[in-house]
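The protein record quoted in full:

***
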Amino acid sequence: MTPLKTLATAALISCALMTGAALAESHGDMAWTKSKYGPEDEIGAANLLTPDRAKAAAGLVTEGKTYSLGLTLDSTVPAFAPRSMSIAILQPGQVNNSGLGPTKTTYNDDIFMGWLGIGSQIDGLGHIGEDHVYYNGNDGSDFVAADGMKKLGIEKVPPIVTRGVLLNMSKFYGQDIVTEGTAYTRDDIMAAAEAQGVEIREGDVVLFHSGWLDLLKEETRDAARYGSVEPGLGKSGAEYLAEIGVVAIGADTWGLEAVPFEEGVGVFEVHQILLAHHGIYILENMVTEELAADGVTEFMFVLGHAKVRGAVQMIINPVAIR
């Protein structure tokens, strides 16, 4: 996959812009290390998923139209370096023969070789920490192991079935493809929701549409630009959605937050705010184009992922139903 060759430079520039006060603030208050769901909690905002919220989400289905939110993944899709993937197709035990048994049964199997944090993906709570401290005060030295995490594994995340909200930031800013580095602030998110006539509520999954995935279409392809910068969630926007109490936040970009990072905001600090501080899941490379084209603002959101024990992230294909 195409590496993000300029991302490290952008990150270093952003880090250099952080003031001493901002750095002190980001590391000085450790209250976030104690989850409101208790010292043993490993699922964070997923605690907000309830049968009542799933039933209410089902009530949003009026047409039965479904939307696949996952990218078709192959080795050309840009990924955060050094992530990559490939597949190999095999026909075990079928070389130089007509197949298995009298019916001559033949079959194909595949081997996947790659990283789980590629394409459309969910970031688990063990993905991002602050100086090796992760969600609910878990010290990386206590649970991160080469053969899989002993806590905060992706297998702990329950099925996510709840109300989904789409904020069309492309329409809000009046840009087919929102300019890289544009940060969705608290005020922007509030204004965009008001303009769409939709309310963001506790327990929601919030998705942002920016048109950024257009950069991977054949006629407009610019993979280098796509994978090195992006518009996205700003720090104040992340704090606002955390205050509301959403379960997950996603976007049609590779890293959710604005890159280059906002002035005074640290390297992937929005990831820290959401994952480490609040237990809110991140959904990246969400295919939101069709939802936006249909003017959908709220829908039933359904996500069931592969439960690989000890994994940090997972390739996903969530479904929106209206």
